[in-house]
Amino acid sequence: MKSLIKNIFSGAVVGCMILMTTACTIRISEDTFIVSDEQPAAYQTDFVVQLQQVMPNNIITPVSIDASEQVRLKGFYIDNPTSDTTLMFFQGNGMKIEPDSLSILTRLSELNTDIFIVDRRGLGASEGQPRIENLIADAQLQLDYLHQHYPTNKVIVHGYSLGSFIAAQLVKTNSVDALVLQGSATNVDDWIDEKTPWYLLFTRIEMPEDFRKADNEQVVAQYYQGPLLVIGAENDDQVPAELSEKLFDASQSEVKALIMVPNTGHQGMLDNAHAMSRYQAFVNNL
Question: pTM surpassing 0.85?
Fold first, then answer.
């Protein structure tokens, strides 16, 4: 998740001149919070070549999914011929497959699973205007597409940052073999509490109701009880490590693990060799 809240808060200081004595309201809309592009951009051949170079034994297939509002979602299915497990990866806010995901896809390929990744609506190569409601519906379409076109023995759903909320909502109503929440908050209210500077204590922050309905803590505490892996970073200034720990503690899963990556911020968690070793062990034990 990008430092959008920080920027919004900075602007709010200008609008609320006397915060210590006067209440002020910041209204955050889906349009301002969810990063989107003006128009989709097709994947470049050079990028696909780079993908193939970092995972030469895999078969990389472009995918196109018809979604609501006559929108087409674009992405890739990366087939590891030795695997019967597919990892569905949901990206962070503003994170495109090209050019942002080459590094993380390289790391995920080390798990020796198939990988299914789609640019979310309104970003990268995918069309449309994103809202929380249609992003969740699109995730269901992606899972249905996976089962229809690429039947697999096991499905791991991995959500990073904003993508963790989409991932959690998907497993709330679908049976999967494992859930991975990386750089994830418990819910939007906890996140706002952690990110609100002291000088905005008299400020009320209004978020769309759909944001509050997407509650990761509620999902792992009440709905999802399968294998869970929570990955956080000690120096994460976007989603404080305390929220990853709170999410892990709330989980009712019998099989669960928490990886807290040292000396790392919101990005680069999977660049840590020890974290990837533990991730691999988690996958191997499914």
Answer: yes
